[in-house]
Amino acid sequence: MKETQEELEFLLREKFSPLALEVVDFSAEHAGHSGNPEGRRKGTHLRVRIACESFRGKSLLEQHRLVVSTLESTVKTRKIHALEIRTEVP
């Protein structure tokens, strides 16, 4: 089974063919707090930075909605507590 970070990268590459993509797992910084009471050190808190042409002409909200809709199922099944999204138009 893929790590959560790898799965998000795969899904985003498949959907958007981004010019730049970075997915960072910073779960260890939040181990033991209310969003991660089990103390998991991976897969609960992720940061996404993605740049792609398909965001051109769309508002920031629309861009984020596209990313969220792509990852929604994984966020639920993997029990991701926090997902930071930074979208860019190249």
From TrEMBL:
<protein>
    <submittedName>
        <fullName>BolA family transcriptional regulator</fullName>
    </submittedName>
</protein>
<dbReference type="InterPro" id="IPR002634">
    <property type="entry name" value="BolA"/>
</dbReference>
<dbReference type="GO" id="GO:0016226">
    <property type="term" value="P:iron-sulfur cluster assembly"/>
</dbReference>
<comment type="similarity">
    <text>Belongs to the BolA/IbaG family.</text>
</comment>
<dbReference type="InterPro" id="IPR036065">
    <property type="entry name" value="BolA-like_sf"/>
</dbReference>
<dbReference type="Pfam" id="PF01722">
    <property type="entry name" value="BolA"/>
</dbReference>
